[in-house]
Amino acid sequence: MATSMKKTTAASTAKKEKEVVETSKRVFKSDDLIPCRSITFGELLMVGNKTKYVYQWADYDDIQEVEYQDLLYDIRIQGASFSRYPRFIVLDDDFVEQNPILNEIYSKIYSVYDLRKVLDLSPSELKKTVAGFPKGVKDSLKTMVATMVSNGTFDSVNKIKVLDEVLETQMFQTLFNA
User: Fold this and answer.
1) 36-62 per-position pLDDT tens digit
2) What's 90's DSSP letter?
3) Tens digits of residue pLDDT in 90-122
4) Residue 22 burial (CB < 10 Å; 0-12/13-18/19+)?
5) What DSSP line would sit under 100-114, residue for residue?
6) DSSP one-letter code for 116
7) Domain boundaries, the chain
8) Strand extents, DSSP E, 77-163
9) Counting C-beta atoms within 10 Å of the first and last residue's C-beta, which end of the chain has fewer, N or C?
10) Rounded to an integer, what distance in angstroms lies between the CA atom of residue 47 and that of residue 59?
11) d(CA 69, CA 150)
12) What are residue 75's phi and psi, to 5 degrees?
């Protein structure tokens, strides 16, 4: 009987330890650096509200590290914050998990890491997908497509018409005014 009691206790202890490991959250220090990828075409600057550091991304897909305290403050402020708008995507899964608003925002983005893939969709899918994007992602897509249209690297008339409708732009006219 003593042996079976000992086995049960050991199994119980192992189960409790496993539960603790699964439910423990990473604890960030205020100066921990969190990698963030720009989804903004062109240069992006953000002044940290806590540290007053200037964070700078060179272009779309550039990755910079932002201090935890600045990033957390940016998420918590109301209005046009960089992370909630969004202008960049937080790449740290633990940070995103601890800030559910980010998951909510990111779930609305068709492709977090590559907006170019959106342009491969059919016109009807493109319209539906882009309509669900947050404002910041729409702005990035506008800039990207406008640049592609002016460079002659994107000339799908049907898709440009769809994007003009959804993004409230006039890119179609630039095809014929150039």
Assistant:
1) 989 888 899 999 999 999 999 999 889
2) E
3) 989 899 889 988 877 876 664 544 678 888 899
4) exposed
5) HHHHHHHTT-S-SS-
6) G
7) 33-106, 115-177
8) 88-90
9) N
10) 17
11) 40
12) -70, -35
N- to C-terminal Cα separation, the chain: 89
* Residue bearing tokens 């640049």: 147
User: Structure tokens of 15?
Assistant: 């189960």
Cα–Cα distance, 39 to 7 (Å, whole number): 54
DSSP H stretches of helix in 24-88: 68-76
Residue type, 130: V
- Beta-bridged to residue 71, according to DSSP, are none
For residue 9, what are its two tokens?
A: 């206790």
Residue 159: which region, alpha, beta or left (left: phi > 0; alpha: psi -120 to 50)?
alpha
Q: What is the pTM of this model?
A: 0.57
